[in-house]
Specification:
29% of the residues are buried. This protein starts with 7 loop residues before the first helix and ends in an 11-residue tail after the last helix. Helices cover 35% and strands 12% of the residues. It has helices at 8-27, 40-43, 76-86, 105-110, 126-135, and strands spanning 45-51, 54-55, 61-62, 94-100. Strands 1, 2, 3 and 4 form a four-stranded antiparallel β-sheet that branches. It has one domain. It is globular. It is of the alpha+beta class and 146 residues long.
């Protein structure tokens, strides 16, 4: 895919669309291997674009909330909104952040606690993140943020 960028705004818009597709792909049954009981884990998926470490508010994308109850007092939709607004990535350029923010996301991903194996929460889209990074001549990384 050849990408032509005519302005910073069009680049931000392009990354916003890519972020939205990534969170949909991450939650797609073909890329995840867990079941969500309350819907809060699903609701905690989101993406946003940052410029020089500052959030581009219009770039926030989340899945439409479906949870009818909180899990341990937490709402997935509230957790992702809060995370994206408070997070500040390092770097001087554009950063696309894709996250799942319920506290047990990382436990599932790492296979911690009483789990007998790990589950794909975000890592199911690693290949797609690598492709995007290459297309935009950037880098990508996976990191757990506590």
């Amino acid at each position: 895919m050849n990408i032509k960028v005519t302005s910073l705004d069009s680049l931000i818009d392009s990354l916003t669309i890519r972020g939205e597709r990534l969170i949909r792909d991450a939650y797609d049954k073909r890329n995840r291997d867990f079941t969500t009981r309350t819907g809060n884990l699903r609701d905690s998926y989101g993406s946003a674009v940052y410029l020089r470490g500052e959030l581009i508010e219009k770039s926030i994308r989340t899945l439409s909330p479906i949870a009818q109850q909180r899990r341990n007092g937490l709402s997935g939709a509230e957790e992702i909104q809060s995370f994206l607004r408070e997070y500040r990535p390092n770097g001087g350029g554009l950063t696309l952040v894709v996250a799942s923010t319920m506290p047990y996301s990382s436990i599932l991903e790492e296979g911690g606690g009483n789990l007998s194996r790990s589950y794909r929460v975000i890592r199911g889209i690693e290949d797609k993140m690598q492709v995007i990074a290459k297309e935009y001549k950037g880098t990508w990384s996976y990191k757990k943020i506590s």
